[in-house]
Design a protein that fits this description.
Layout (H helix, E strand, L loop, with lengths): L11 H15 L1 H7 L6 H20 L24
Length: 84
C-alpha cells in the first residue's frame, strides 16, 4: 500500500504528485485491474499462449533500419514504367 506523509511546509499538490508516483511505481492500479474478476485456469492458459504467439510474431517481424525515414530506401514512385 502506498503511504505518503505530508510535511508541514509541503503543499498538497506536491504530496499528491508523490502519492501518484508511488502508486505508479508499485503498480497498484495494474494489480487491481488484474484481480478485478476471476479468470478460470483454462482461460489463463489460453491468454498466455496468445500473448506468447503475439510476442514471437513481433520478434520475427523484420526490423526497419533506424536511418531510413519516410522516402528513404523505398521507391517514391509506385509506377515502375514511369521515367523522368
Amino acid at each position: 500500500m502506498a503511504y505518503v506523509s505530508v510535511n508541514n511546509n509541503e503543499s498538497i499538490e506536491s504530496a499528491l504528485r508523490r502519492f501518484k508516483r508511488k502508486v505508479m511505481t508499485e503498480e497498484i492500479i495494474k494489480d487491481l485491474k488484474k484481480h478485478a474478476h476471476f479468470v478460470p485456469p483454462g482461460q489463463k492458459a489460453k491468454l498466455k499462449s496468445q500473448n506468447a504467439r503475439k510476442r514471437n510474431r513481433k520478434r520475427m517481424r523484420p526490423m526497419r533500419p533506424m536511418n531510413a525515414g519516410p522516402g528513404q530506401g523505398s521507391n517514391p514512385n509506385p509506377n515502375p514504367n514511369f521515367n523522368r
